[in-house]
Amino acid sequence: MYVVTICVLISSLSFFAYAFSYFNEPHMKNEFKRFGLEKIGLTTILLEIAGALGLLVGLKFYFVLMISSLGLALLMFAGLIIRIKLRDSIWISLPAFFYMVLNTSIFLTSIKLMM
């Protein structure tokens, strides 16, 4: 359980930091423009905030952990697909891949915890 807690903290704090930077650094909004997703940028950030909060709440309620980690994994999968379509380098795409794998592993672990 200790490893899951560390993974949840890494993921949730990272998503909170990303959301904070979206509101405070113009280049983050420019990334959504580059992706062709500026109309849903705020929605994406709000989903990330909800997922990060859900991960923390999920440490107490495993069903919430399962839903939140799955949602964030799917969000990062979509982000990875977009980066591949834009032909971003592996180095630039690596964070989306990392957080997809991290949240997928949290999701799989949460299923085991619920049993």
Structural class: mainly alpha
- Low-pLDDT segments, ≥5 res: none
Overall average residue pLDDT = 94
Task: Quickly count the helices.
Answer: 5
What is the rounded distance between the termini? 14 Å
Summarize this structure as a short list of keywords or feature phrases.
mainly alpha, globular
Describe this protein's structure.
With 115 residues, this protein is mostly helical. It has one domain (2-114). The protein is built from five helices and no strands. Helix 1 (2-24) runs antiparallel to helix 3 (41-58) and helix 4 (62-85) packs antiparallel against helix 5 (90-114). The mean pLDDT is 94.
Short description, anyone?
This protein has helices at residues 2-24, 26-35, 41-58, 62-85, 90-114.
Topology:
Blueprint: H1 2-24, H2 26-35, H3 41-58, H4 62-85, H5 90-114
Helix pairs in contact: 1-2, 1-3, 1-5, 3-4, 4-5
